[in-house]
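Entry:
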Amino acid sequence: MFPPLPNPSVQPSASKFGEQDLVRRSASTVPQPARQLTPMAKLIDVSKCIGCKACQSACLEWNDLREDVGINHGSYDNPLDLTPNSLTVMRFTEWVNPETKNLEWLIRKDGCMHCADPGCLKACPAPGAIVQYSNGIVDFVHDHCIGCGYCVTGCPFNIPRISKADNKAYKCTLCSDRMAVGQGPACAKACPTQAIVFGTKDDMKKWADDRIKDLKSRGFKNAGLYDPPGVGGTHVMYVLHHADQPKIYAGLPENPRISPVVQLWKGLTKYAGLTAIAAFAAIGVLHHVVMGPNRVTEDDEQNAKRLAEDRS
C-alpha cells in the first residue's frame, strides 16, 4: 500500500511555492528561479480503478463547481466530455482483447497531464495567462486569460475548455492551492482503491515499476508506464495494462507532440518577425541620417495652395 496523503493541518501555514518558483510564463519571460522544487507527479493506475467517480466528485467539491443535471446517453461517461466545470472526467471503454477474446472494461481518468513541455503555454499569446512552476505544475491565471482558445489548439491532449460564462480557459490545476500548503490533489485524497497516488515523480516511477511487475506476473505482458517523451514527460502518468496500445483507453494519444504550427509560430516565425521589424527600423534611421528629415518647401506650399484654389 502506498502511504496515504496526510490530513490537512488546522494551523495556518506559509505557501510552499509561488511566483519566485516560476520557470515559464506565457508570452513573456521570468528570471531564473533561485531554487529547484522537487518535481511532483500523480500516478493513475487504471488496473486498480473501479470507476466510482469519487475523484470526479472530489474535484467538483474542492473547486466549488457544479454541472447541470444532464440526461443518460447510454454510457457511464457523465458528463460526456470535459467542461469548464468538470476539470476531470472518467472515460469508460469496452474492449475485446483479440488474444484472449475476453471483454475488458477500460476506465481512464481524463484531465490535464501537466506536460514538462506544455503546448498550451507555448501557444498562449496572453502574457502571464499560463505559468509553469519548477515542481511541474502548469497553472492558468484567469485574470490574464483573453479567452482566445489557442491553449486548446496547442494542447496535444485536447484538455482546456473555454467557458461561455466568462470566456476564460479552464483545466485541472493539479490542485496547486492544496499543494501550496503541503496537501495532495483532492482526487488522490478521495480515491478509495489507491488507483490515484501522489508524490515526487521519482517515487511515482518506482511505485509504477512495482505495479507493472505485478501486472506482468498476472499475464499482462505489455503492462507499462505512460509518460510520453514527445512532451518532455508528464506530471500525470498512467500505469496501463496494455501500454503498447494507449489509444484503446478512450483515445489516449500514442505519441503526443506539440503541433508543428505552434512550434513554428512561437519559434522561427517569431524571430523572423522580430528581425524584420528591427531591419525596417534600422532602414528608417539610416534614411533619416543620410537624407535628413522630410521638409515642405515654399514652392510646395504655393503649389498646394494653387491646386486648392483650382478645385474650388
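The chain has nine helices and eleven strands.
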